[in-house]
Design goal:
CATH superfamily of the largest domain: Spore Coat Polysaccharide Biosynthesis Protein SpsA, Chain A
Strand order of the largest sheet: 3-2-1-4-7-6-8
Number of domains: 2
Number of helices: 12
CATH architecture of the largest domain: Alpha-Beta Complex
Organism: Mucilaginibacter hurinus
Radius of gyration: 22 Å
Protein name: Transmembrane glycosyltransferase
Order of helices and strands: HEHEHEHEEHEHEHHEEHHHH
Number of strands: 9
Structural class: alpha/beta
Pfam families: Glycos_transf_2
Shape: globular
Largest sheet: 7 strands, mixed
CATH topology of the largest domain: Spore Coat Polysaccharide Biosynthesis Protein SpsA, Chain A
Family: Belongs to the glycosyltransferase 2 family.
GO molecular function, one term: glycosyltransferase activity
Distance between the termini: 55 Å
Helix content: 40-55%
């Protein structure tokens, strides 16, 4: 009986190995060999940058001037001041006096219902003057003065959705290192899927789409009852192989600060992971099996080595997968300006798969009640 159990465990380990290798070679390799446009073409598509901000006075002071100073001929910045109780309103009015391209939309508390980010964004989209919309958050800073131009040039194609990349600042510490690693692993997954013709999510800190697409698909109506998901659920429901493109030139990055406390990080990740259950069924299956097979791969590897179940072969398969990861991820991490993350891969990836499974379960049962 013990022999059969050992054989079953090793067989399951091999299934997980093959599954992980499939994701790596079939999906992630597409991103490794994708070359972003090097020379920036001149483009003059009118762009509306939309930012929903609640009590973000400090972040608006730090980052909004960088967006208003973008080197682009025709753009406006729509800031939705969503029920703020700090000095955001006075700061925005003062800034508007010297920046006519800044448009302010004010949302006030309603006695009968609590507004959320989706409501604020909808008000911003309605107020936007232009067809092409570019989204970010108040706590984000563009990597360069060409952020708008880099994102906008993609609308010269048939694209209606542009998926960008938003890394965290490198500040040191375990939490920051893992947050940066988790962010790049998430980006590898959703950017690769888009290149493969099956886009399933985007990040609201750096994403663009058309006003026509938003209103023709009734905006956030189908998931307005869910506090999070203004970015990934919208993409999951409306992105196709034909209407979606990615932009990963370093000039187009949108940087932000990672959470510095476990409490803040836990709250953020619970909110993000809670919307996964509303993805399309095929995407839920794909992401779930990636998380489960990755988790089991490391658990079963440890069992094989400890219990002497073909330990040399098991460790050999692990090394083969790691080598393939290094070959493929070295190109991706270089493009995404995170080469140092490759060094942490053997240590952080097992933790990453534990995180995916734990927060996947938490997100299934916990409902987020607020966005700020």
């Amino acid at each position: 009986m013990e022999t059969y159990i050992y054989e079953a465990l090793f067989l399951l380990f091999q299934v997980c190995f093959i599954s992980q290798l499939y994701y790596l070679v079939s999906n992630h390799s597409k991103l490794a060999y994708y070359k972003p446009l090097r020379d920036l073409r001149k483009v003059n598509i009118p762009i509306s940058v939309i930012i929903a901000a609640r009590n973000e006075e400090a972040n608006l002071k730090a980052n909004l001037p960088l967006i208003l100073a973008q080197d682009y001929p025709d753009f406006e910045v729509v800031v939705v001041n969503d029920c703020s109780s700090d000095g955001s309103d006075l700061y925005l009015l003062g800034l508007q006096a010297n920046h006519p391209q800044l448009k302010i939309v004010t949302v006030t508390e309603h006695p009968r219902f609590k507004t959320g980010k989706k409501f604020a964004l909808t008000m911003g989209i309605k107020a936007a003057s232009h067809e092409h919309l570019l989204f970010t958050d108040a706590d984000c800073a563009p990597a360069t003065h060409n952020w708008i131009a880099r994102m906008a040039v993609n609308f010269t194609t048939k694209a209606q959705i542009v998926l960008g990349y938003s890394p965290f600042y490198k500040t040191g510490g375990l939490l920051n290192t893992f947050s940066r690693f988790e962010t790049i692993k998430t980006a590898v997954s959703y950017l690769s899927a888009a290149l493969k013709g099956d886009p399933y999510m985007g990040i609201g800190r750096n994403m663009a789409y058309t006003k026509t697409l938003f209103f023709s698909n009734k905006g956030f109506a189908s998931h307005m009852h869910v506090m999070a998901g203004d970015d990934d659920l919208f993409v999951n429901q409306n992105a196709t192989a034909d209407n979606t493109i990615i932009e990963i030139h370093p000039d187009a990055f949108m940087f932000t600060a990672a959470k510095t406390t476990l409490r803040g990080w836990f709250r953020q990740k619970t909110r993000h992971m809670g919307v996964g259950k509303l993805y399309k069924a095929k995407h839920r299956r794909m992401l779930s099996w990636d998380a489960v097979s990755g988790f089991l791969f490391y658990i079963l590897l440890a069992l094989c080595v400890i219990m002497g179940i073909e330990p040399l072969l098991a460790f050999g398969l692990y090394l083969f997968r790691l080598l393939m990861q290094i070959l493929i991820y070295s190109k991706i991490f270089k493009t995404l300006t995170a080469k140092d993350m490759l060094f942490y891969l053997p240590v952080l990836e097992p933790i990453y798969y534990i995180y995916l499974n734990v927060f996947g379960l938490i997100g299934t049962f916990i409902k987020t009640a607020q966005w700020k």
